[in-house]
Amino acid sequence: MLTLNQTSLNIELDHPSQRSSEFHYVWLRDNCGCTECVHPDTLERTLVTAEIADDIAPQSADISDTELVVAWNDGHHSRYAMDWLKRHDYSHSRFQTDLAAGEIKLWGSEIQNQIPEYDYRALHDDDQQTLLNWCCDLRDYGLTIVRNAPLKEAEIERFAEFVAVVREVIYDRLHNVRATPGEYNAYNVASTTLELKPHTDMPCYNNPPGVQMFHFLANETEGGESTAVDGFKVAEQLKQQAPEAYEILTKTPVFFQMDSARGDIASGNPLLTLDTDGKLKVFRFSNQLARPSNIPAEQMEAFYAAYKKIGRLIEAPENKVQFRLETGDIMVTNNLRVMHGRNAYSGAGQRHLQLSYMDMDDVLSRIRMIKKTQVAA
Ligand code: OGA
Ligand code: ZN
Ligand code: ZN
């Protein structure tokens, strides 16, 4: 059954609710898939949405078992397969067409002995299923460990290129983290033997790198255990315990800056960035990079109360995992969600990490590409 309304049509698509599905004329016209409207080789839209007439409507419309055919009042003809309409039926729920969509799994200290672990060679040598599983764990948990990586200089850059691409920042493409006083890259406390409280890297960027990789070329010191905290879990706890504090942290900019001889990156963004559905999208936190707040005086006290609340949740033992990474291990985090840190360590014995970044979009791209080859096979 097809019903033509003023600005939309209704069609029955065998939805379990038995309610008919509504498609707006402007949406249908905009999503015509013909070769005049979509470039046949690049699949990019050539139809210009802004040029669709405001009174766009069918002159006639017909359905068969397999398709809806519309003759538009602008002279264009469109065909929509029923299967396609079912997959894009927005009037019952928000349709999901993203092959890389995952399910976020929040964690606390209980994950300590179950952090997703992979073998470096298996990631490279197995068919792409192992790499796909690893990418999906990174997406869903935001924390993984890859064991037995080669102890070679710049291996982490090659690893990034094997998975996706390196996301460069202004400081170094490859960061050496070791306690060598006076070295040019000693621009932060990471290059000392002090404790590093859980933080996300580069929150001073408006778009911080999405994936952080730590390759342990050597870890032979006393102490220096790695720590990690799920920022999304902590934010969820705050939302339950103190919704007004959560709200403040979604709205108040916190100014972060990383200033050195090599660059001066500075920006103010909320610790909690929400998406258009109000879900948490980006978590940022770095005690060491925070700079004086210049928010209006009347907001200052409430902001600090909220800021300290989340800071205390980050330090709560039930939210923190702590583990020792060995020489040859790579820890990988979703830097838009999971904080990392390390305990203080003794200067005796070598400790040398190489760090590099990727962007999460490029990892999600890898997921889609592998899934597409699996479907085609
Ligand atoms: C860093 C960092 C962790 C470590 O350099 O940003 O967090 O284990 N290092 O040294
Ligand atoms: Zn068309
Ligand atoms: Zn760091």
CATH architecture of the largest domain: 4-Layer Sandwich
- Give the helix proportion (percent range): 25-40%
Number of strands: 20
Largest sheet: 6 strands, mixed
Cα radius of gyration in angstroms: 25 Å
According to CATH, what is the topology of the largest domain?
Answer: Double-stranded beta-helix
Number of domains: 2
Average pLDDT rating = 95
User: What bound compounds does this protein have?
Assistant: N-oxalylglycine, zinc ion
Chain oligomer state: single chain
Separation, N- and C-terminal Cα atoms: 38 Å
Task: Give the amount of beta strand, in percent.
Answer: 25-35%
The CATH superfamily of the largest domain turns out to be: Clavaminate synthase-like
**CATH top-level class of the largest domain:** Alpha Beta
Strand order, main sheet: write it out. Answer: 7-8-18-11-20-9
Spell out the helices and strands N to C.
EEEHEEEHEHHEHEEEEHHEEEEHEEEEH
Residue stretches low in confidence (pLDDT < 50, at least 5 long) are none
Structure classification: alpha+beta
Number of discrete helical segments? 9
Notable characteristics:
single chain; 377 residues; alpha+beta; Double-stranded beta-helix; 2 domains; six-stranded mixed beta sheet; 27% strand; globular; binds zinc ion
What order do the helices and strands come in, and which of them pair?
Layout: E1 2-4, E2 8-11, E3 21-24, H1 25-30, E4 58-63, E5 67-72, E6 77-81, H2 82-87, E7 117-119, H3 120-125, H4 129-141, E8 143-147, H5 155-163, E9 175-177, E10 196-199, E11 211-219, E12 226-230, H6 231-241, H7 243-251, E13 254-260, E14 263-269, E15 272-274, E16 280-283, H8 297-315, E17 320-323, E18 330-334, E19 338-342, E20 351-358, H9 360-376
Helix pairs in contact: 4-9, 6-7, 6-8, 7-8
The chain binds N-oxalylglycine and zinc ion (2 copies).
